[in-house]
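Bench notes, afternoon.
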Amino acid sequence: MRVERLAIIGCGLMGGSFALALRSLDLVGTVAGYSASANTRATALALGVIDEACESVAQAVTGADVVLLAVPVQATEVSLRAMAPLLGAQTLLMDVGSTKCDVVAAARATLG
């Protein structure tokens, strides 16, 4: 399955590695990325990890087929709130958070 638009929320090691892995297998079209740090966004863009350095979670997620949430667990709920209205019924949302109980609790509180 080819992903036309992948949104990476958190373009550091985990998010960036996921994007590069899909790219290496030619399984992704456009990669939109958001990180709270403008420097991280710029670095990810310069290294070819992402195609679009987005200024917000909402901008990155808009139109995405797949969203990878790769932020510190304490930033999960804020990120989910920002993207919730933009997630389509068929959008695949994944996370790489280290503690699933916290991530699931944030998802339930935010997404229902």
